Amino acid sequence: MIKQFHYDSDLNGGSLMVRESRIVAGLLMDGVTSEQWDEAIRIENVLQKRTPASAQRNATAIRKRLERLEPEFWRALRYGDDELATQVAFCGALERNLLLVEFMETALRDAYISRAEHLDAFVWMDFLEERSHRDPAICDWKESTKKKMGQVVFRMLSEVGYLKSTRKLELQHVVIRPEVKTMLEEHYKKRIKKCMEVSTWIR
C-alpha cells in the first residue's frame, strides 16, 4: 500500500528566533542530557520567555530544526555575527520545512524571474492551494492556521533579507555568506543552497 504524502511543517512554531537559536545551539554543542535541557529551558529560563510552556515550545521547535544540521552549523550559529547566525538559522528552518523550500523554489523564484518589485500577499494562499493537490490534508487546515504560516514565512524572508519588510513585501537581493555556502556544499545540502541563492539566479 502506497503511503499518502503529507507535509510535516513547524512553520507555526515561530520564525527564525536567532537569539534563542544561538542559546539552543550552545546547549546542543554541550551535549546536554534531557534533565539538563529541562533545567536550562524551564527552570533557568535561558530563553527568557514569559512562561515555561512558551519557553518549551520555542526551544523544541528550534531544536528540531538545528538537529537536522551538523555541529559545524551550530558553531557558526553560536559564535558567528548576526548575519551569519541568521542565515544558519534559516538553513535549519529550510531543512525542517519542505513547504518553505518549495515556496522559495516556485513563488519566490517566479517573483525574481519576473523582476517584480514586491511579493504579492496572496501568493502564500495560492501556493498552499496548489500544494493541496499533493497533500489533500492542507484543505482541512484552518484558514487562521494557513494565514499564520504565511505571516511566519514572510517574517523569515524579511529576517534573512529577501523582503525589505513584512509590511510592503518589497523584494531584495540576498548575498549568501561564503561560510554558509561552503558548509552546505560540504554536507551535500545542494537543494538548500540553491534555494537560498534564489535572488541571485536571475541577473
Topology (elements, then pairings):
Blueprint: H1 18-29, H2 34-43, H3 52-66, H4 71-79, H5 82-96, H6 98-113, H7 123-131, H8 143-160, H9 178-186, H10 190-196
Helix pairs in contact: 1-3, 1-4, 2-3, 3-5, 4-5, 5-6
Describe this structure in words.
The chain has 10 helices and no strands. The model has no long low-confidence stretch (mean pLDDT 93). By secondary structure, the protein is an all-alpha fold. Helix 1 crosses helix 3 and helix 2 packs across helix 3. Helix content is 59%, strand content 0%. The protein is globular, with a radius of gyration of 17 Å. The longest helix has 18 residues. It starts with 17 loop residues before the first helix and ends in a 7-residue tail after the last helix.
Brief sketch in words of this structure:
The protein has 203 residues and is an all-alpha fold. The chain has helices at 18-29, 34-43, 52-66, 71-79, 82-96, 98-113, 123-131, 143-160, 178-186, 190-196.
Low-confidence regions: none
What is the number of strand segments? 0
The helix content is 55-70%
Report the average pLDDT across residues: 93
Structural class: mainly alpha
Characterize the largest beta sheet: strand count, sense, and whether it forms a barrel. Answer: none
List its salient traits.
203 residues; 0% strand; globular
